Amino acid sequence: MGILEVKDLFCGYEKVPVIKGVSFSVNKGEFIGIIGPNGAGKTTFFRAISGLLRPAGGGIEYKGKDVLKIPPKEFASEIAVIPQMLDVPFDFTVGEFVMMGRFSLRGRFESLKEEDHKALKEILEMTDMTSLKERRISELSGGERQRAVLAQGFAQEPELLIMDEPTAALDIGHKVRIMDLVKRLKKKRALTVLAAFHDLNLASVYSDKLILLKEGKVFTTGTPGDVLTYQNVEEVYKTLVVVKEDPVSAKPCVFLVSAEDEKKSPQPPFSKGETL
């Protein structure tokens, strides 16, 4: 049994199903990427895992427990949920906001300790947020705020990290730095990661396995090489692509082909050839 078990999950909004019979297992220490086009159900699925959306059928278990029955403090001490973007109701400083991630590790009336302040310093350094410690959340750019949300999740020291498109608001440099950090934490702490991606190449480089969703169902699952074939991408995303092996990572890399470039090709369409 995996650390996370999704069993014949059905869920949606106002009786309209979005996720339709999804099942899979996540083993401890794995990095699983969830991919699929807009409307495939990625965000709905993550809302169900985090307990914000009650399934209409099936269920989700963490270490054999229904996620809806895990007490909030216990949930937060083991599972960190990183949304696409978080509305912060009070104008905390970055340091205060990130430190909130430590509360799940302390008793109800227990004060924060020296180790918590040490952890805060390390996390701010790791996420390139040290210079922003005293800034108010309201003063941050979208990318800076997303890094603060990620830092708060890391501060929880979770066993399972759930991320819904965590790098969507970040520039390419911070995307790489944040995903490298997640990968290092995965190795150092035997962290299990489940992340949704829009960027197929980012998902390919960092994930051990991919789950490709189409219209709320699992279209296919496997290693990035198994999933990111031109046939699968074109079938699900309805767009022409070329897939080649990244010369550095040896993972598949997806290249978009515009309609204009397709017409220029001496051998159109590209997709009729092999995935290289």
Descriptive overview:
This protein is of the alpha/beta class and 276 residues long. The chain has 2 domains: 4-228, P-loop containing nucleotide triphosphate hydrolases (Rossmann fold, 3-Layer(aba) Sandwich), CATH 3.40.50; 237-276, no CATH class. 33% of the residues lie in helices and 26% in strands. It contains 10 helices and 12 strands. The strands form 3 sheets. The protein has a 6-stranded mixed β-sheet with strand order 6-7-8-3-9-10, with helices on both faces. Helix 4 crosses helix 5 (142-155). It starts with a strand and ends in a 12-residue tail after the last helix. Mean pLDDT is 87; it is low at 267-276.
Present the secondary structure layout.
Elements: E1 4-13, E2 16-26, E3 31-35, H1 42-49, E4 57-62, E5 65-66, H2 72-78, E6 79-82, H3 94-99, H4 114-126, H5 142-155, E7 160-164, H6 172-189, E8 192-197, H7 200-206, E9 209-214, E10 217-222, H8 224-227, H9 230-237, E11 241-245, E12 252-256, H10 259-264
